[in-house]
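Q: I have 143 residues here and want to know how they pack in 3D. Can you give me a structure?
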Amino acid sequence: MEEIIELKELLLKGDIKGSLTLIDELEEMGRKAILKTIRSYAVILLLHLIKQQAENRTTRSWDVSIRNSVREIQRENKRRKAGGYYLNQEELLETLEEAYLNAIDQASLEVQEGRYEPQELEEIVNREELLNQAMKLINNEDI
């Protein structure tokens, strides 16, 4: 909120350059918040995909969590007024890749009741297949 007040003051002073700099900062702050939210849902999505792959089964709870995570990622990534998306396909994949290690860490506590260390679990699951599956789910509008 302080940034909005500062922006108003800069505009009233006629400081266009300072105003534009502050607007850039506000845009970056908003983008970071959206990215953080998408990354959080990506961890949950990947966690359940890892569990499915590692245990070669699924549960209704995991399926619901996957669907909910996908919907939230889709919702957060969509620009409401301007149209389009905040993250393009490459950036979305990069975000999933960043979330992968957190998901592996969490999954190591849950897969077969915590039987595997994260490094062991990474050897069991196919990372590329998981990331591709996550991207396919996110790009599916019918989820």
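Q: Anything worth noting?
A: The chain has six helices and no strands. Residues 80 and 110 are 36 Å apart (CA to CA).
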